[in-house]
Design brief:
- The protein is mainly alpha-helical.
- The protein has two domains: 1-83; 119-170, no CATH class.
- Helix content is 54%, strand content 7%.
- The protein has a three-stranded antiparallel beta sheet, with no helix packed on it.
- Strand 2 and strand 3 (166-169) form a beta hairpin.
């Protein structure tokens, strides 16, 4: 009877170790795939921003040359000379890469006081969903053998209310 009991205990431990290894490898695979996707998206965004900066610089040079040629042609045509006044936006910080005329007005910077309770609510009670980063997650019911085995290792199932993704956390 004791041998049977010892065999059951060792089998149960082995099964627990295998379950942990399988779930860990699955989580690692998912994380690696997501990291690769994020790196690809980041590379595309960097490339797009570089192209936008280059096209903005080219457009700025073209506009500058056009303004210079207009000034030269008008100064020759007007008897007293002609000079365009500098823009009222010259020297101001710009947001983005568009023309300063279309930039939003910048409000003066002010420090904001934040209630610590609001910060705690924003973080979410249990953290965030690894699939969609929503903070609207809840504890999920344990279903199946794996969920009950993971209970012994203090791993609990959670489900995202936004995307319905089920994941595990310590």
């Amino acid at each position: 009877m004791e041998k049977l009991q010892d065999k059951l205990i060792t089998d149960f431990r082995e099964m627990g170790q295998r379950a942990i290894q399988v779930s860990t490898s699955a989580l690692n695979d998912q994380l690696n795939e997501r990291i690769e996707t994020l790196e690809q998206v980041s590379a595309l965004q960097t490339n797009t921003l570089g192209k936008l900066r280059e096209s903005s610089a080219v457009a700025e040079k073209r506009v500058g040359h056009a303004v210079d040629s207009i000034e030269k042609s008008l100064s020759a045509a007007v008897p007293g000379g002609f000079k365009l006044e500098p823009s009222q936006y010259a020297g101001q910080p710009q947001i983005g890469y568009g023309h300063p005329q279309f930039q939003p007005a910048l409000p003066p910077l002010q420090l904001a006081r934040i209630d610590p309770e609001e910060v705690a609510e924003a973080e979410g009670k249990y953290g965030f969903c690894p699939n969609c980063t929503s903070t609207k997650i809840r504890r999920s019911n344990r279903q199946g053998l794996l969920d009950h085995v993971l209970r012994f290792f203090f791993v609990a199932p959670f489900r995202c209310k936004a995307c319905r993704h089920k994941f595990y956390k310590f």
